[in-house]
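Progress narrative, work stream C.
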Amino acid sequence: LDKHGFTNVLTDCYGNDPWIRDADYLAQAMLDRASCGSIAVIHMPERGFREYNLRALRIFLAGLRQREIQVVTLSTLHREAHARSEIPTAVLGSLGEGGI
């Protein structure tokens, strides 16, 4: 990972979408876990494969908007954390400029 400038991150907001196909349930499960600073994971849908994730993502993002939680990339979260010095560098490492 270091060779390519990547860093492992852990998620705290995951709906288990490879096994659960109910978009409403997925979105609500993720919203129940989400808070400021959460790292959410949902798999990329494709035509004919995990299309239910498009609806789940729309519902999830609308729910975050209602709660006034701003959605950002991991690179932005990392940069903001370092700018505020709230999280030690040794814990985060480097995410690289390309993002995740």
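Work stream C, second folded protein:
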Amino acid sequence: MAHVAHATERPQKVSDGSASQSSKVVRKPRIDCIDGCRFALVFPIILGHFIRFGVDNKRLLKLLTQENVLVGGFFSISGYVAAYTTTKIRERSHDAKKFQEPELFFWQKVMSYYPLHFLVSTLGAPMFIATDRLMKNSWRTTGMHAFLNYSLLQAWFPSEAEIWNPPTWFLSALSFANFTLPAILPQVARLSKDGLQKLLVALSAVSLLGKLSYSQAWKFYCRGGFAEKTAHPYLWNVTRFHPFGALVEIVTGAAAARSVMLDDENQKPSMNPLWLFLASYASLGLRLTSLNLNDAMIRTLLFMPLYTKFLMEIHRDCLTEKPHLITRFFGSKLMTSLGALAFPMFILHGPIGQIFYKKKIAEKLWGGILPKKFFPFYLLLVMVAGHFTNEFFVKSKKVQQLSAWLARKLADSTKGMLSDAVPLNRDNSMEKLAGA
């Protein structure tokens, strides 16, 4: 197997209450191909945020400014990986050790991305504050923006979701999801394949309701965000940024992973993952047709179902002896290396872009927004900065040790927040409740 280590098994005694029997605990192989998929998501998202400063072609702008569709793929991957690493293969159960301290689970998740967010926010603070002041915001408003940014609460405020480093609303929504996962993932792990399929349908319906609400208030079709602005910007921000919507997509990814993990040992992919990958990205092409649905509808009706199915099939394919070409490509050393750059590039591309393309900042630094011929150099700068940040900060042992120490301290100080630190004695629980 080229891009996944073989799963190894060891015998373990289990008891069903009446007799002992032998069972096998499967060790999970690493799924490198899903890591490689991250770069295929982050690069068009970066393009979408700043492509208007690089090209004038309206058809290209229509096609490439759909970053709000693609970001759903990141939420799906987050849920997929969370479920894969915390639940058991071919068993309807979770790894109890992973959730033994749910507060620690939550803070470890947060500390996997907060240090870089804190670093970039602090280094960019002079620019972010200057932008606030140049836009005539009061010091009180500027201070509130700083608080929301550092506390990762901005996604809850539709009027402030894109403050300072706008893409970090993703981390704000992700943090809420991570807070709920210790309670949600064990329940999802208990479901059968049939139950998981029904859950996926229900989650898709819930997600669609929010998008229908927005579309009914505005319109179902649009020419693209670069050409026309929504008449309801706060409703649009709630639709695309709200943490509850992110949680729905994350749990969708988790349910998809569990469905694959319950496969029979010799389960084969139902189709070549390439076709699902192409179909999911081809959904963006609707913007060039008369069926130019708005981003919210494309994301929920087409992209998310197709992309989630793609993750399931590429997962199954990578476990076979002869994976398809696309699986080998995304699992290659090149793509997994680029996938490792996805997170730092995502955090860095906003502040770097503001230096060159934020009007008030660019006028102060360069006399105006830089010409379109500079755009390829901007993309190269983001990649280079992402590489060095990944090598010397994200991978830094000192940063990792500090993050682990902070997670431990925060978990200790919040113990009981997600699991009762003093369990209730069931034998006399009613008397205690009556006494209280």
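Confidence is low (pLDDT under 50) at residues 1-23. No further action is required on this item.
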